[in-house]
């Protein structure tokens, strides 16, 4: 197969794909914050949660639902900050994955990626990485 990438470009493509995959897996996992509530272990991420409290109106108590799931709707995410984080992190993961898959295609197709396209793709990756990591870094 012909490639439009140098050896460094091939390494960049595979590392980009591995980093994008790790970012996407981290985005979909509900283990961003771990703790306990009502003597049960709880965890949640931007749009998924495990072991969460629910008000039982028939008994007038709060019970823990011990299962993982996503929020029923976008508005059900507990705060505006978490909703913003969900959107920004999702966009960052999408950008990273788009560039990584394009770079992998460049390993198989000649003349797909030029030096200019490579530089633009690196800039997009940088932006995607900042979007994915920005919330955790106080940005």
Automatic annotation (TrEMBL):
Write down the membrane topology: Multi-pass membrane protein
Kinase as a keyword of this entry, yes or no, is no
Can the keyword Signal be found in this entry's annotation?
yes
Gene3D superfamilies, alphabetized? 1.20.140.150
InterPro entries in alphabetical order? LHFPL
Q: Where are the transmembrane segments?
A: 87-109
Q: Where in the cell is it found?
A: Membrane
Q: Name one Pfam family in it.
A: L_HMGIC_fpl
Mainly localized where? membrane
> Where in the sequence is the signal peptide annotated?
1-21
* Keywords assigned: Membrane, Signal, Transmembrane, Transmembrane helix
Query: Where is it found, in Gene Ontology cellular component terms?
Result: membrane
Q: What is this protein called?
A: LHPL6 protein
Which species is this UniProt entry from?
Nesospiza acunhae
